[in-house]
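Risk register update: the risk of archive-format incompatibility is retired. Evidence:
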Amino acid sequence: MKYTWRVALEILRLVPPAFAGFRRTQKDIEFGGYLIPKGWQVLWVAHMTHMNDSMFPEPSKFDPSRFENQTSIPPLLLWCRTTYLFRIGVYKD
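Archived output:
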C-alpha cells in the first residue's frame, strides 16, 4: 500500500485536482521587488509549485520514489495533498 500511496501523490503532483488556492500572508513579505502586506490574500498556483525543479528534481518525470522520504517533501506540499485535498489528515508510514 505504501507504493500505491506514493503513486497517488506523484499523480496529484503532476495533475493537481485544484488549479489554485488563496493563502493569507502572516507577515509583510517582499516578493519579486514588491511588498505584500500582512493579511493580504495571495493566489497560489499548484502546478507552478509542483513543477518547480528547486523543489522537485526533474519535475516532468513520473517518479513515485521521490515520496519515499517524507522529510524531503516541502511541508506545505505534504499538508496540501494530505489534509487540504483528501481531508484525511497527515499520512504517516
